[in-house]
Amino acid sequence: MAVKKVEKIWMNGKLVDWDDAKVHVLSHVIHYGSSWFEGIRCYETAKGPAIFRLDRHLRRLFDSVKIYRTEIPYSEQEVEEAIFTTIRANKMRACYIRPVVYRGYGDVGVNPLPCPVDLTIAVWEWGSYLGPEALTEGIDVCVSTWNRPAPNTLPAMAKAAGNYALGSLMKIEALQAGFKEAIALDVNGLVSEGTGENIFAVKDGVVYTPPISSSLLPGVTRASVLQLAQDAGMNVKEMSIPREMVYVADELFFTGTAAEVTPIRSVDRVKVGNGKPGPITLQLQKTFFDIVKKANDPHHWLKFVYND
Question: Hey, which bits of the chain come out as E strands?
């Protein structure tokens, strides 16, 4: 999905023109992938534009940076205010929000410490990540030949740019094989996550999702859907999921800021259930959209951008 240009991007405390938002070619981040980011959505709700779970996203951003022994030169409150400033400066009603922390220009060696820590915030229009029909019809996926990293290698809990090199390999493999997305296994051959989504399985009315120890990013939408499932009285289990379960599950779905709640209709060309989004998936999807579109928000997950 091509990025639609807007007027301003926030960089290190200043709003700059879109075309002037640049970094030096010798910045540490370009050579070593030393950046951490968030993907956040602002929805046009029935009560006005609102950001979904902004505090949870910012906490994860600060945690990601901390894992890499780095500090953001702004407080969480300052970053939150900068996000609101950027949305308002671009007069956005609904948008994708990308704060990215990165090591800038200073030294071109593996050691990142001599390089400054920069922060940029961009916003742009964002539609359906996996296509407009994905949410209603489901998508076809494959199990990737690439595995998620073993424990004590790359930190899976950090939303670090370097982690997504692996996700890109999985995505390319899936697309070239005629699939929309890929499911990754962990080092033990257990189900982990998608290239940029968490995964859920439903079997005999029980909702399953892999634990954090399965080398996955602790998704904000994942946590939200777990809460919504519990609110609905569903039997929810975070547990290791063997590969073969994705072939015999009654329902499968992805969750993520970009993917929202996306049904999976087949894995490796094996039909999931009857090949259509299942009732539990659709119930959770509806509850999720009731929050982000209708502002039926019992958990107070929305932060409104304007006073309208």
Answer: 8-11, 14-17, 35-37, 40-45, 48-52, 95-103, 117-124, 139-147, 181-185, 191-194, 198-203, 206-209, 235-238, 251-256, 260-267, 270-271, 302-304
Which residue numbers are catalytic?
159
Question: Going from the N-terminus, what domains does the chain have, and what CATH number goes with each?
Answer: 8-124 (3.30.470.10), 134-292 (3.20.10.10)
Task: Per residue of the chain (308 residues), give pLDDT as tens.
Answer: 678 899 999 999 999 999 999 999 999 999 999 999 999 999 999 999 999 999 999 999 999 999 999 999 999 999 999 999 999 999 999 999 999 999 999 999 999 999 999 999 999 998 777 777 899 999 999 999 999 999 899 999 999 999 999 999 999 999 999 999 999 999 999 999 999 999 999 999 999 999 999 999 999 999 999 999 999 999 999 999 999 999 999 999 999 999 999 999 999 999 999 999 999 999 999 999 999 999 999 999 999 999 75
